[in-house]
Structures are given as C-alpha cells and as structure tokens.
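A note from the maintainers: we've had questions about how concatenated examples are separated. There is no special marker in the raw files; a new sequence line simply starts the next protein. For clarity in this README we add a label.
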Amino acid sequence: MNIKGSGLKWLWLTLIMLVVDQVTKQLVVASMALYQSIEILPFFNFTYVHNTGAAFSFLADAGGWQRWFFSAIAIGVSSLLVFWMAKAKPEERLISISYALIISGALGNLIDRMAFGYVIDFLDFYVGNKHWPAFNIADSAIFVGAALMIFEAFTSDDDSDNKREKKNA
C-alpha cells in the first residue's frame, strides 16, 4: 500500500484530532464535576455531560443497546473511509481531509463509548436560556469533515463528465 500515493497521507490529521479530542475530554473530566457549567462567553459554556445516545442525544434512553449499535456504525464508517482514502489520488486533498476528520470524530466517540458506555460532551452554545445540545471536539471534526465533503461534491470537476464531453465533441 502506497501511503504517499493516496489519500492515506492525511491519516496524520486523524491522529492529531483524535489526540486533541481525547485530551480535552480528559481535562474536562479531571477538572469539572458532572453537570458543572463554567461560563466562558455570554453564549458559550463548558458544561460537562454524558451522552449515551448519538447526535442531539438521539436514542439516549434506548436501554443500552444503542452503545453497541453506534459503536458498530463508527467502526464500519471508519473502515469504509480508510478504504476510500486508500483509493483517493494524492491530489484529491479536500476529500481526503474530510475523510480524516470524520474518522477522527468517529473513533474519538467510539473510544468513549467502549471505555465508559457514553460520550463525554462539554461544548455548550446557547441563546438566552435556549441551549444547543452539548457536543465535543470529535463531533466538531465530524461536522467539519461532512461539510467539506459536501463542499467538495459541489465544487469538484468530475473527470468522467470531462472525458464524456471530449469524446462527444
């Protein structure tokens, strides 16, 4: 497998984001009590919570099976994205970066689920008394990776379309 000749050269980004995610979560656990909230800005707190569900606490009260379900999804998606990274050309940087970010987020939350049975969340944005569901660095990496993937899909030139146009000309 040729790492330099594929999108796998971006796996260093996965590792860095995974470390940042895990270190920030452990700093929160070490310095805050569960449900403690520290105001940082008038619209942002550090609030330490546990999330047994997925995004927006989806299936948080499902009885425990969701831990294994979301873990299987994280493993499956990460495996698929690594496979796609291996197939990506070196010049396909944006899509490889998006894959790397999504993998780091999926693995960061997978580590929490496997170790604790829940994901550690602490980033709490709000307006007035309306709070967005708390999230973490892993969730942010998944969001940014997905946004980059969508952006890339709308802005990239499709080689097959270019070849078809040249052939028909």
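[label: protein 2]
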Amino acid sequence: MPRWLFALLFAALIFYTDDYVIAGILPELAADLGVSEAQAGQLVTVFSLTIALSAPVAAVTLTRVRRSTLFTVTLTIFACANLAAAVTSHFWILMALRVLAALCAGASTPAVFAWTATQAPPDKIGRYISIVAMGVTGAIALGVPLGTLIAHAVSWRGSFVALAIGALMAIVMIRATMVTDGRGEEEVPVSRQLRALGSPPVALTLGVNVVAMSGSMMAFTYLAPFLSDAVPDHELRAVTFAVSGLGGFAGVWIGGLLTDRIGALRTIVAALATLAAGCAGAWLLWLTAPLHSLPLVIMLVLLGAVQALGAFALSPALTARLSTTAGDGADAAIALNTSGTYLGVTIAGAAGGAILTGWDAGAVVAAATLIVGVAAALFATSTRIAGSR
C-alpha cells in the first residue's frame, strides 16, 4: 500500500475525531463556558450540519485545486481554528470556530475519498477506500476516548490542542507522501455533474446511504436505554460499545475486501442483509426481555457487533459504486454521500428520540429494522434501473 494512503487515513481520523470528541468532553466544556449541556451539544449539530451543506459545494467548486494543496490549506486553517477554540472563553466564539473547522472538514473529507478511489488500482478500490474509512471508526474507537482522557488529565481545551497538533502532523505526512500529485482534476461543467447526479441509479444509491444510516444510527444512538431495559441487572454499555467498535473496524475492512472480490453490488446487498439481521435479532430478543440467561445476554452484545459490521461494510462499497457509476459527477457524488451520512445521523437522533418518547427502546430498534428494509428496497430499485439501461 502507498504511503499517501496512510497519510489520508490519519487526516480522516483527525477530521472525524473533531466532530465526535465533543461527546466525550461535553460536561467539562459546558461547565467551563457557563452553558447547559444541551446547549453545548449543539456544537456537534452545527459541525455536522456545516459539513453536510458545504461538502457538495466544495466538491463542485474546488475541482481544479491540487489535492495536496487543498489538504494542506484546509488542515492549516483547521489547526488554527482548534488552537483558537482551546483558548476562547466565549461559547458563541467557540461555535463560530466549530463552523470554520467544519468547513475545512467538508472541503477535504470527500476529496480524501475521491482521490483514494481515483488513485487506487482497479482491483483494489474497495481495500484502498476501506483503509481511509478506518479514520471514521478510529475516531469513535480511538479518537474520542483519547480526547476524553486528555480532557480529564488536563482540560477540555487540551483536546483541541491535541487535534491541532494532529492536523499539523497530517500536513507533514501528506506533503511527504503525495509527491506525484501534479494538479487538480479536470474541471467538469456543473451542468454535466448535475446530469450525472440526477441519473436514477446514482440518486437512488445516494438515497440508500441516507436511509441505511438513519436506521443503523437510530439503533446505535439509543443503544444505552435499550440495554438498560433489556438487561436491567447488568451494566453492559461499555462492553457493548467496545464490541460494536470492533465490529465496525471489521466491517470497514471486510467491506473493502468484498468490494474488490465480488463487486460493490453484492457487497452492498450482503452489508444491508447483515445490518438488518443485527437489528431484527436485537428486536426479537427484546420481545423476551428482561433477559436473565447469560447466553441470551452474550447474543445481544454480539448482535451489536453484527449491526456495526453491516453498517460500516456499506461505506467502501457505496463509495466504490459511486466512483465508478457517477461518471462526470463522481467527486460530487462522493461529497453528497458524505452529506447523506451526516443527514442520516441527524434524522436518526430526531426520529429515534420521538419514538422513544412515545413508545419504548424496543420500538426504536423495530423502527430501525424497518428503515434498513426500506434502504434495501431502494437499492434493489436502483439496480433494476441500472440493469435496464
């Protein structure tokens, strides 16, 4: 594997950790700035929404910018924004700095995946994308816990300093490894990109990502109340989240391998089936709750890993499919796919919360299972349309 691939993996890890790390330092940050935890939590919402809105625009307008230059500039601004965040004492200034950092992430993250897809050998596209996508799972499994430890050892401000240092390290790695990055991509007229994005197979594939992410993240977001009600005699959150993290790592890598070996189409089908099986299995166990049998408790924990495996296996397969089918709109499609991921997370939190308020945690998982089924139906429709052309 080329060295630049691991430089981009590290850059993705830094960008995604900056989004998720707030969850680990929320109480300390809110107390220090004199705001409620609910208000401080909007720092995550603003960051995610900014990426969702800016990524497609950046993909269209920054096409001709040399990729290594784009990454260098955005990571530099990103580092400065995080250093400023570490010293501010005003919440609204911090909010503005989060928007600035998110704009940098929105401009770079889709380009990281698009560059990886175009530079990878045809028979290794899935594996190359899966390596970079490990930055996402790494942010959850490694970045957030490390940021939380730094916050406890120093302060929440230390977490932002660490992210700034990480961004500077990513710049050094990129400048040292992307030595053949001669220029940006050929500029494609916006009209041609929009025509490519508007084709039913591409549009439906993008829709699959939004719907599948809504279902998978709905189950993940409300995992804690689900576990508390299903297994009231045990505290399983830490174990289940850790096992799910391992499932996510495995899913990204397996998804990349399968994409190269059996193709993106079959990999997406397998990933959706795995995700649906994990959600449906958890819901069936819920019907027998509360669980007191150790084998059933272990099965419930493992089903969390099955859900994560299916959800994260989708990422390299969907990206590979878009990179090869979207034609002139490939970069924009990958950017929209990134936006769709963040949109799915937003929908999952809002819809899952409404369901939990009106019913119970079991209903949330049942709804997640149904939503994943809708994603599978959308994908089946997209493949039929593509096959008829």
